[in-house]
UniProtKB/TrEMBL annotation:
Keywords assigned by UniProt, alphabetized: Membrane, Transmembrane, Transmembrane helix
Transmembrane segments: 6-21
Highest taxon of the lineage: Eukaryota
Protein name according to UniProt: Uncharacterized protein
Length: 38
């Protein structure tokens, strides 16, 4: 339980960064909100 939460967070963050980093401003905004909220 303790490892699954951060693991899923990092996996979602990496996948979002790979798919949306330069292609979509919405992806960049969502990544920023997810990282800044943490």
């Amino acid at each position: 339980e303790l490892l699954r939460g951060p693991l899923y967070y990092v996996l979602v963050l990496m996948c979002s960064a790979l798919f949306f980093w330069r292609k979509s401003p919405v992806g960049v905004i969502s990544l920023t909100m997810m990282c800044a909220g943490d």
